[in-house]
Amino acid sequence: MPDYRKHTQAAVQVAAGLALNVFPAIFIAVYARIAPIDSQGFLALSLTVGVYIAQLFNAFIVEGRLATPDADHDLCLPWWVVVFAIASAAPLILGPPVASHAVLMISSTGVMSGLLMSRTIGVVSGRWQLEALAATVLIVAGGLALVLAQHHNTHSVRVLAVGAILAVLSRTWPRTQVGGWGMPPDLRRSSWVTGETAVVGIPQPAITSIVLGTIGPAASVAFRVISTVSGALEPILSYGRYRLLAHGHRGELKIFAALFFLGLIAVAAAAFGGFGSLIFGPAWTYVGAAALLLAFGWKVLMLVSTVPFAALRKAGETALVFWIRSASTVIYLILSIGFLLIWHSNTAVFAAFVVAEAITAIVYHLAAVKGAPEYSVDFAFAGRSRGGDDND
Fold it and tell me: Which residues cross the membrane (predicted)?
């Protein structure tokens, strides 16, 4: 395949991945215009928990298969995920626009599970045309929902939910042999992958709930908005992570890094250039510039740690990765909760995230040098050469 076509597909996949954030971002933006602050605060928590549970499903079904050597990667979306997403979205479509707390939690979980898993399978399978179609549907629905919310139209949430379901359905085909329940071939390995995802993902819902309980719903909304804006870079990180898992860093890393920094510049320019206020409306008034800058720095460090992480996972070191991620989670929780209780601000939380991710990146690098041969050859060679020269 010519390089220009490979680059085009990468750009389309990442752009389509950015649409994954449309549902939570527009959901928050809509509620900022039509719902009381208490409902906005609980929605922020619901979306965080929903994304967390979706990541667990995704880890067990998709990432566990990718971490299994010689497993069939010709995936399609399991039917039960489609049913779960549709059933979860139904109360948003058929019920009142300002839903109950229970509906918000269930709907966020089901819809995000469908969106995340269908998106991940699209990246792994390389079906970039379907990804572009799904992204277009979701973006158009999100834009229409936002316009309706600005006029306090009660159909805004319904339009957003319908768009999310159409995006999931558009990725349901073509069906492959690895369909049906989509169970991974190695349950033990998938359990390790799911366990590490559960451990590493817990800080976000834990911190969101603590922010909601200690500082209040406005701070909780701000934390979610900042996480959503900086999370616009997550599709690039996810795309790069899955490409590194499937193909290794050679031939992939330069494209990955270039896409990430282009995305970082674009997202930062949009956020500080007035687009954040345009989209999130009243919710943007709670966002601090320092906290947002720290969130961007946190994502840069996640780029750094992704490379040795993927190298270890690809080398089959699932147990080692689990223990590293477990230790990282403990560091995240201790620092972020400590910083939050001392300074009572979102800025302190994101500062803690930066420190914790820096420590994590160093640990991953040291482990990959020892446990991932391909990574060791490319990233430890210079150090060994200098050592050899010194000995000479």
Answer: 12-34, 40-62, 74-93, 99-118, 130-149, 255-280, 286-310, 322-343, 349-367
Instruction: Decide: 38 and 212 in contact? Cβ < 8 Å.
Output: no
Dihedral, CA atoms, 260, 122, 137, 276, nearest 10 degrees? -20
Helix boundaries (H) for 59-100: 64-66, 79-94
CA distance readout (Å), 354 to 263, 292, 360: 19, 12, 10
- Cα–Cα nearest to 26, from 217, 220, 224, 285: 224
Virtual CA dihedral for 328, 333, 335, 341, nearest 10 degrees? 180
Cα dist from 272 to 29, 73, 276, whole Å: 17, 40, 7
Whole-structure pTM value: 0.78
Count the residues in the chain. 392
3-state secondary structure of 174: coil
C-alpha pair distances (Å), 101 with each of 10, 106, 108, 141, 347? 38, 9, 11, 23, 27
CA-nearest of 322, 351, 326 to 339 is: 351
Angle at which helices 37-58 and 22-34 cross, to 10°: 170
Residues of the chain below pLDDT 70: 1-10, 14, 67-74, 126, 174-182, 246-252, 377-378, 380-392
Domain map (residue ranges) of the chain: 3-383
| Number of Cα atoms under 13 Å in the Cβ half of residue 335 | 21
* pLDDT digits 0-9 by tens, 180-204: 666 777 778 888 888 878 888 888 8
Point out which residues pair with 178 in neighbouring strands: 75
SS3 content of the chain, % helix, strand, coil (to 5): 85, 0, 15
